[in-house]
Amino acid sequence: MKEKLQTYGKAMLVPISLVAIGGLLLGVGGALTSEVTINSLGGHWDSWSHSFFFKFFSVIKGLGDVIFKNLGILYAVGVAFSLSRKENGWAAFSAMVAYISMLTTISILLKNHGLSVDNTTISSFVSQGQSTIQATKSAALFTTELGYFTYRTGVFGGLAVGFSIAAVHARFYNTKLPVILSFFSGTRTVPILSLLAGGALGIFFFFCWPFVGHVLGNFAGFVHDSGLIGTFVYRFVNEILIPFGMHPLLSLPIRWTELGGSTVVDGVIVSGTSAIQMAQLASSEPGKLLVRAFMGGNAIINFAIYPGIALAMYHTTRPENKKKVAALLISVVVSTIVFGITEPILFTFLFIAPWLYFLVYAPLAAIGEVLAEFSQVSVYQGNIKDWIPFIFRPEKLNMWPFLYLFPIFFIVSYLIFRLCIQYFNIRTPGRDEAEDDGDIKLYSKKDYNEKNAQGAAPQLDKGHASPANGLAGEIIAALGGQENIVEVDNCISRLRVILHNVELIADDRHWKNELNAMGVVRVGKNGVQVVYGPDVCRIAVEVRELLEA
């Protein structure tokens, strides 16, 4: 079950790889096509707005909009592609066919019931006697996507298509038909069935989406009305789900669907906290980014809580191990601040003292999110990589509260964790007297799962490694060889692998010392995740190419 949820979570992350570059294009393009920005830089707006540069940056802004205005079809294609183990291209093509078929079906049915772009606006619903709030909720159900007037299914519609077509593809991609119909057999069967599946989904959404949309709107209203309590619960639950790799199932719907709320930006209804922030980033309208976006807490975690924990671990280690522990922790803190990769410290405490993670760290992170919202922090995400697009629109940000929130949480985290480590004699790296230099390390989830198991995992037989194939060959050997590998994929920072027998993989020391991995995580019975950070996409491609050679 955990492996299946991991796979779904990974599939849902596929389109997010485009968000960073899309945000950068929106940030640059939106800033240099804004009258406020140009005037603040001492430029002359009338001249600039008719110049070649204005047109150029308008195109740049438009390229960023491509991502955020088409998340539905991107999720449909990305999920189908990611979940299909064979003939991925046909799965992606079929998902596109199904998505367009779904939009067409909804559009035809809406038209037959007298609904159109003109009579589903906020003003139109107000003229029919609805209040402004009710009219906004009603209008939020509709949109125009890829030229079709349709329901605003957004990411939900994309996920429905992606998962459905992945299932259709897995069942029918190798279908055999009679000779007379052989042209339509095999992979060609899938897009044909996908056309019909898209129509069926369109009928389903036509009848069900008004109810679902209102439920989502009411849930978003509940979250909104719950105030800081809802904020605390969101961050606390999200941090608890991270060790199991299931946090995208909570965070992505909040960030990209009606569950994160809806608002009007430049006359267009936008749903989801991240989608709203991106639309606000591109908008020339004044005002800060959405404050209640559940984002400010990420920065407090990466810039204050984890560095404070790292310093506590350093100061409580034995004197003779301080240099080695410092070298280990500095690289971890840098990757946390720059890229938001927190797994090494996270799984160290899960291995040594899980109660410290669930009962101390998670509530502390949730309090950080609450105080960020209370202090009106408006920022996107919490690491330097994700902040790049937003430095071009500083007038949209409010990061000043970090000047006191960072020091407060750094000091509090340091004091709490140092006290806990010393009082409960927690064996963090470098504190165990039986530990030799080679044993000083941060722990992974594999260690956490196996600490009570009998025996040790087999060591890697280095004779099976293939130096000629470089790191990819060594990774395959460390995974137990090609015959032991069922599937290889990746998310933003991890190589995600399904194996026949997880006992055949190399131990953590080999992964970290010889293969440059930041950590190894075991998920379920046959799932393994190897943390490589931002370079994981290149590594995954090389491993897959070598496996297929």
Structure, explained:
The chain has 549 residues and is an alpha+beta fold. The chain has helices at residues 2-13, 19-31, 35-40, 45-48, 52-68, 71-83, 88-112, 122-127, 132-139, 154-172, 189-225, 227-241, 248-256, 273-282, 296-315, 322-339, 343-352, 354-374, 384-387, 402-423, 445-450, 470-478, 508-514, 536-548, and strands at residues 142-145, 148-151, 262-265, 268-271, 485-490, 494-499, 519-523, 527-531. The strands form three sheets. The protein has a four-stranded antiparallel β-sheet. A two-stranded antiparallel sheet has the order 1-2. Strands 3-4 form a two-stranded antiparallel ribbon. A hairpin with a 2-residue loop joins strand 3 (262-265) and strand 4. Helix 1 crosses helix 6 (71-83), helix 6 (71-83) runs parallel beside helix 10 (154-172) and helix 15 packs antiparallel against helix 16 (322-339). The longest helix is centred in the middle third of the chain and has 37 residues, at 189-225. It starts with a helix and ends with a helix.
What keyword list fits this structure?
two-stranded antiparallel ribbon, alpha+beta, 8 strands
Oligomer: single chain
What is the percent of helical residues?
A: 55-70%
For the biggest sheet, the summary is: 4 strands, antiparallel
Radius of gyration (Å):
25 Å
- What spatial form do the alpha-carbon principal axes imply? globular
Helix/strand structural class: alpha+beta
Number of DSSP strand runs = 8
Describe the strand arrangement of the main beta sheet, using strand numbers.
5-6-8-7
Low-confidence stretches: 434-438, 451-468
Strand proportion, as a percent range, falls in 5-15%
Distance between the first and last residues' Cα: 31 Å
Number of helices: 24
Mean pLDDT: 80
